[in-house]
């Protein structure tokens, strides 16, 4: 180790990242201390990494962090996550940011201060490429000087910001590619809560725990869209057929308008969602390049309609992964399995139930017949601890059916997962 160049030692210390470990390791010898001062690129202060942080007084903790940061000269990544710690002095935190902002590429910031520190004001027009803010407020955005010319990833978690400032902030990130919004506190001047965001460079959008009347997103380069635990009356996506990944999980959505953005979809993942299958199918019907389709814990708004394999087989010829998990109903089994077209490219099949009934084994058998090149079958199920006699009978029937089918489909790997 003593023959390692000081730059390599700096990289080793940067891999450690955790401030306590870095300081201990740097005490090894003079060469390691030099690497710490001149070649340390990443430093992390996290109250979950070292519980002692919570036992220190605020002033003592501020001094400890200040001394650790001010001994470095080349930090590119700084993470300060202080949960369950008293509020810091704003002047001290500003000093940390002012000292490091000239070299920082990544800032992860979750610090409560008195008064609030406007990160945009301190770090604007610098070299930041990744900015993750949590439990803070953004009082305003001034495009004239709060620009982020290199920022590619922006994550806002439990951040208070107005709808207008959020739109301005996105416009201030000239090269942004990834946007995450997790449970933001959105303030609007109108009774109707509306967000309108626009970015020509945005490629990935993740939105969680947000409640809005309207969410309009204009992103000509978007490739990934994930909505989770949201309540939206209208979500409108405006783009140029670049979307490849679309996922919604536990979302209440009345109207969803994607225009012509879904023609090149490759992955569709829908779970814990209520929809009318014909309308949803119409939404993705032009996605002839679809490779993965997952419909899990979905509820069909029309009791007479259920996903049918003929439609899937004909419209999605490149499909390789198919996951279906919902409650089968009397009369729906025949409709779902009607037709004769096979899913010739499907090699992974995932099936599940929340309430098992006698239809499930027949459904599994019908699907296996339609997937001639299947290599793996995964069956998920919910089994209550206090099983009724009827439930035990149905489980026994399912097991017998699967054993019989596996003797017929010897090349298929079968996996059971019960909850």
Given as residue ranges, the uncertain stretches (5+ residues, pLDDT < 50) are none
Largest sheet: 15 strands, parallel
Helix content bin: 25-40%
* Count of alpha and pi helical runs: 13
Q: Which class of secondary structure composition applies to the elements?
A: alpha/beta
Strand content: 25-35%
Strand elements, count: 23
Strand order of the biggest β-sheet? 1-2-4-6-7-9-12-14-16-18-19-20-21-22-23
Distance between the termini: 50 Å
Cα-based radius of gyration, to the nearest Å: 27 Å
* Average pLDDT rating: 90
Per the principal axes of the C-alpha atoms, what is the gross shape? globular
Protein name: F-box domain-containing protein
Domain F-box/LRR-repeat protein 15/At3g58940/PEG3-like LRR: 127-229
Domain F-box: 3-35
Pfam family, one: LRR_At5g56370
Describe the secondary-structure layout.
Elements: H1 6-16, H2 19-26, H3 30-39, E1 42-46, H4 52-55, H5 58-70, E2 77-81, E3 88-89, H6 90-100, E4 106-110, E5 113-114, H7 119-123, E6 130-134, E7 153-157, E8 160-162, H8 163-172, E9 178-182, E10 185-187, E11 194-198, E12 204-208, E13 211-218, E14 224-228, E15 231-238, E16 245-249, E17 252-257, E18 267-275, H9 277-284, E19 292-300, H10 309-315, E20 321-325, H11 332-337, E21 348-352, H12 359-369, E22 376-381, H13 389-408, E23 413-418
Parallel strand pairs: 1-2, 2-4, 3-5, 4-6, 6-7, 7-9, 8-10, 9-12, 11-13, 12-14, 13-15, 14-16, 15-17, 16-18, 18-19, 19-20, 20-21, 21-22, 22-23
Helix pairs in contact: 1-3, 2-3, 5-6, 12-13
């Amino acid at each position: 180790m003593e023959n390692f160049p000081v730059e390599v030692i700096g990289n080793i210390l940067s891999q450690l990242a955790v401030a306590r470990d870095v300081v201990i390791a740097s005490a090894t010898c003079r060469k390691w201390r030099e690497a710490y001062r001149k070649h340390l690129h990443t430093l992390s202060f996290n109250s979950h990494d070292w519980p002692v942080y919570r036992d220190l007084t605020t002033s003592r903790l501020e001094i400890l962090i200040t001394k650790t940061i001010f001994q470095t000269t080349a930090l590119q990544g700084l993470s300060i996550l202080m949960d369950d710690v008293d509020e810091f002095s704003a002047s001290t935190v500003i000093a940390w940011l002012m000292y490091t902002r000239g070299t920082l590429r990544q800032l992860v910031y979750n610090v409560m201060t008195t008064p609030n520190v406007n990160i945009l004001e301190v770090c604007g027009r610098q070299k930041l490429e990744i900015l993750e803010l949590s439990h803070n407020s953004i009082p305003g955005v001034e495009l004239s000087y709060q620009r982020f010319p290199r920022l590619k990833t922006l994550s806002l978690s439990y951040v208070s910001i107005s709808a207008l400032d959020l739109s301005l902030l996105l416009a201030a990130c000239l090269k942004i590619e990834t946007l995450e919004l997790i449970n933001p506190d959105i303030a609007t001047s109108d009774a109707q809560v509306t967000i309108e965001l626009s970015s020509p460079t945005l490629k990935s959008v993740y939105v969680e725990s947000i409640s809005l009347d309207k969410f309009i997103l204009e992103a000509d380069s978007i490739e990934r869209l994930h909505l989770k635990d949201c309540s939206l009356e209208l979500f409108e996506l405006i783009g140029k057929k670049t979307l490849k990944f679309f996922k919604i999980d536990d979302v209440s959505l009345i109207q969803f308008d994607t225009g012509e953005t879904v023609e090149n979809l490759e992955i569709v993942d829908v779970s814990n969602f209520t929809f009318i299958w014909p309308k949803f199918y119409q939404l993705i019907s032009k996605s002839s390049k679809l490779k993965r389709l997952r419909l899990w814990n979905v509820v069909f708004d029309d009791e007479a309609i259920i996903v049918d394999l003929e439609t899937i087989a004909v419209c999605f010829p490149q499909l390789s992964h198919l996951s279906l998990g919902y409650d089968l109903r009397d009369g729906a089994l025949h409709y779902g399995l009607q037709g004769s077209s096979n899913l010739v490219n499907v090699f992974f099949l995932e099936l599940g139930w929340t309430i098992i009934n006698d239809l499930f084994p027949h459904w599994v058998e019908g699907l296996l017949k339609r997937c001639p090149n299947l290599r793996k079958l995964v069956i998920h199920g919910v089994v209550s601890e206090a099983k009724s006699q009827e439930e035990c009978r149905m489980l026994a029937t399912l097991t017998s059916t699967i054993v019989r089918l596996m003797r017929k489909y010897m090349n298929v790997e079968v996996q059971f997962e019960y909850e």
